[in-house]
Specification:
This protein has 449 residues and is of the alpha+beta class. It contains 5 helices and 21 strands.
Length: 449
């Protein structure tokens, strides 16, 4: 709900202008004057802390030592607890062993066709050629003898050529096979090198994760703040979302709380010697050095809100006190309201508070509910009119001015809009008389004294 309050109440304005008793019944007139006008937007809000972190156990074990108590103020980096976890130590040892075993392997196949041994065959063929020549020389016909010897020589020459060609073919085949194997070997070697690199990287990552888990067994404050001790499951293995999150590298030491649907007080209080499971909440550190306000501003008012806008804040927990605040951020994500409309989140920083008698108000705690009144527009010396003098006519705002005793319809442009008084930017001037009561019943040209 939006409440707009003006700085000058209607009764004061009427007293200053001096209403007459000569107007028709139900109609009152007053002079337009200068007066301060303030427009205020009211929105519900909740007190928040500057930062909050829940610190969780990275592994199953027991609380070896607890260094803090509930409500203690701690500094950034201060040790809160130490957890003894043989399981985490064993995982680190296994990871290091796996990393050392990730040695590179070689792959160099060697395939070669064997050379043909034709020595024995060549000797037998030579014997046959010698016998053939011997028999040819026995031929008495010189011409026939000569032809036979020539044929034997030709056959022997062809045999030698075939043997040489076979040797050349074998050499070329070996060369081709060697080239093919070289390409295949290169591709396989590259693939194996990539696989080895991936395996080595995974082994290193596993070692780092295990080292991080062991290091996280010493739980330290991420920033300065107030400690709230948690409750643990007593060593039972976590299940569901918390169980999965706790297996991440680092143990999910600062993971947000996951509602389980049960009572928040369930579990065993954190203490030295208590068994814990991975993901159990050990402590929550809340930085209350600066308090914030998260206000829900209605869509009809949010466009009036700017960074730096000042606000007055009232808390249900501190009746009679008013705190200062200033807008630091305006959200753009709408939230559905209970009445069907939407609102937008507005973040403010909370300042000091004081009671009506001037005494200092206590410092609120995160989570307390509040009402924020934001001063969205302020005009210290405005041409002002009572809010009752404004008549809405479609998209226009109208006032009835009185000139020479006759009512005149004037379209006006409004500025800051308080609850009792509004700023008039154009349409009327200071000193003019206007209808300030009963404006809905006035008609154009009506006689008003």
């Amino acid at each position: 709900m939006t409440i707009r309050r003006g700085a000058a109440p209607l009764l004061v304005l009427l007293a200053l202008t001096g209403c007459t008793s000569e107007e028709p019944a139900g109609v009152q007139l007053a002079d337009v004057r200068r007066a301060p006008v303030t427009e205020v937007v009211e929105a519900p809000a909740t007190i928040g802390a500057r930062a909050s972190a829940t610190l969780r156990s990275p592994a199953q074990g027991t609380i070896a030592k607890l260094y803090v108590r509930e409500g203690d103020h701690v500094s950034k980096g201060e040790t809160l607890a130490k957890i003894r976890s043989p399981q985490a130590q064993d995982q680190l040892r296994q990871a290091r062993q796996a990393s050392e075993m990730a040695t590179p392997a070689s792959f160099a196949p060697n395939v070669r066709l064997p050379s043909f041994d034709t020595g024995g065959f060549d000797r037998q063929v030579a014997v046959h050629f010698a016998k053939a020549r011997k028999e040819a020389r026995k031929v008495k016909d010189s011409r026939a003898r000569k032809q036979l010897l020539s044929a034997i020589d030709l056959a022997q020459t062809q045999h030698k050529a075939q043997t040489k060609a076979l040797e050349s073919l074998t050499a070329r085949l070996n060369q081709s096979i060697s080239g093919v194997l070289t390409g295949v070997t290169s591709g396989i070697s590259t693939s194996m090198a990539s696989l080895q690199a991936v395996s080595k990287s995974q082994a290193k990552a596993a070692v780092k994760a295990a080292e991080s888990a062991v290091k996280s067994l010493t739980i330290k404050a991420p920033f300065s703040g107030v400690v709230t001790l948690g409750r643990v499951s007593g060593g039972a293995a976590p299940s569901g979302v918390e169980g999965l999150l706790s297996r991440l590298p680092g143990g999910g030491q600062q993971l947000p709380s996951v509602p389980s649907g049960g009572s928040t007080s369930a579990g065993t209080p954190v203490a030295t010697g208590v068994p814990v499971s991975a993901g159990d909440s050990i402590a929550t550190v809340t930085d209350v050095s600066k308090l914030t306000l998260d206000a829900d501003v209605d869509e009809t008012d949010v466009l009036l809100v700017r960074e730096g806008v000042k606000a007055a804040v009232e808390l249900d927990a501190v009746p009679g006190a008013t705190y200062t605040a200033a807008v630091t951020a305006i959200g753009v994500t709408p939230m559905e309201g209970t009445t069907g409309g939407v609102s937008y989140p507005v973040r403010l920083t909370l300042g000091p508070g004081a009671f009506d008698d001037g005494s200092k108000a206590p410092t609120p705690k995160p989570g307390m509910s509040a009402v924020t009144r934001l001063t969205v527009r302020e005009s210290p010396s405005a041409v002002s009119a009572p809010a009752a003098a404004i008549v809405s006519s479609g998209r226009e705002s109208v006032v009835w001015a009185v000139r020479n005793g006759v009512a005149q319809r004037r379209v006006v442009k409004l500025g800051a809009q308080g609850d009792a008084v509004v700023e008039v930017l154009s349409g009327v001037s200071v000193g003019e008389r206007i209808v300030v009561k009963g404006a809905d019943s006035v008609r154009e040209g009506q006689r008003l004294s």
